[in-house]
Design a protein that fits this description.
Layout (H helix, E strand, L loop, with lengths): L12 E5 L6 H14 L4 E5 L5 H11 L8 H25 L3 E5 L2 H11 L4 H12 L6 E6 L2 H9 L12 H17 L4 E5 L4 H18 L2
Parallel strand pairs: 1-3, 1-4, 2-3, 4-5
Helix pairs in contact: 1-8, 2-3, 3-5, 4-7
Length: 217
């Protein structure tokens, strides 16, 4: 592990993915501590959200309304928030040499709106190209957990948002899409078994970050 006097590396874009209840927040905190110990300057953000306007779109996406949100409207809102997020936060941070750690990104759109909602993948790909250009994560960590266990954890947290109220079948499709993405892009994606105890999960995370940190030294 590098010390805090190490020279700043070029910015690296890390995304954390997984269904509800996999422990993203807890493990992002572990990643933050690791990067601090390694002397890496970073920002932590999330999707949808990350900027003032994108966070307002997030509220629209998560809140439960009397007027149901059309699936295509949902997809367009996700990419509207992402466009703002990329231009106002992600690109400037990477350009300044900071690492960006993002709680979900476009893989979540393929998983939730593509896999879960069944929207046309080609439409998502077109929006991805339009909004992101060539920007893709350097590393995507997928925390994998069966939906039944994940949703049991979520239920203990309190009131459910609009996505959390979906049926298990929806999350089965989301999970499978994540696994399909990881299989298709093994160089970018790393799957970590989130059914392990926290110590084992974070041991896997530590090994992964050590490897990637050295690659970007």
């Amino acid at each position: 592990m590098q010390n805090k006097e190490s020279p700043q590396r070029n910015g690296m874009f890390i995304t954390i993915e997984g269904i509800e209840g996999v422990g993203k927040s807890t493990n992002i905190e572990f990643i933050k501590q690791y990067l601090e110990g390694a002397g890496v300057e970073y920002v932590v953000t999330r999707e949808p959200g990350g900027t003032l306007l994108a966070e307002r779109i997030r509220e629209l996406l998560l809140e439960i309304n009397k007027e149901p949100l059309n699936e295509l409207s949902e997809l367009l809102l996700v990419f509207a928030a992402r466009a703002q997020h990329i231009e106002r936060l992600i690109k400037p941070a990477l350009a300044s040499g900071k690492w960006v750690v993002c709680d979900r990104f476009t893989d979540a759109t393929f998983a939730y709106q593509g896999g879960g909602r069944g929207l046309d993948i080609s439409v998502i790909e077109e929006l991805q190209s339009m909004v992101q250009g060539s920007l893709r994560p350097d590393l995507t960590i997928i925390l994998d957990l069966d939906p039944k266990t994940g949703m049991a954890r979520v239920a203990k947290r309190g009131a459910l948002d609009r996505f959390e109220q979906e049926e298990l079948d929806f999350f089965d499709k989301v999970r499978q899409t994540y696994l399909d993405i990881a299989k298709a892009e093994p160089q970018r994606c790393a799957v970590i078994d989130a059914t392990q105890d926290l110590e084992a999960v974070q041991s896997d995370l530590h090994s992964l970050l050590e490897e990637r940190l050295n690659l970007h030294a």
